[in-house]
Amino acid sequence: MPFPRTVPPLRLEFAQKAFIVDGGRLLMVRKTAADPRHPGRWEVPGGRLEPAGDLGLDDHIRREVWEEVGLKVDPGPPFHLWQWFMPDERSGDRVRVVAAARVCRPRSLEPTVRNQTPTDHLADPSWVPLDEVWGYDLIPDLRPVVRAFLRLHAGG
């Protein structure tokens, strides 16, 4: 007899976040009031992999950064892995997102939100001094990643 399914199906997705650093500053972006999960909270650029469109992981993080903040970057290696769960509003499935954080070196320094897609819900890209990052209302799942980033940056 098959085991009865009591929870919605679980879909796995992959995401990357770009910790873009320049001169002791981190590029952060604020979620707009229209964001369905974290309105007004702060994060770093990045997003989920598009399996049909992204050629590789470096291509993926470059695309996300370009779309969300209009910068060109050189991606570095991952420094932190984590996951979160969220509902898929269209299908009702649960989604497990496994994510990698990467330090990226900017090749340009003037952020813009004009390349965003309608679902990005990001505003106010800002270069934040590293010693002021904890003063921002961060997305809760991002806090351990920021802690790992700041430890890494202090050690380097």
TrEMBL record:
InterPro entries: NUDIX_hydrolase-like_dom_sf (IPR015797), NUDIX_hydrolase_dom (IPR000086). The keyword Lipoprotein does not apply. It comes from the Bacteria. Residues 9-151 form the Nudix hydrolase domain. It holds the Pfam family NUDIX. One of its GO terms (molecular function) is hydrolase activity. Keywords: Hydrolase. This is 8-oxo-dGTP pyrophosphatase MutT (NUDIX family).
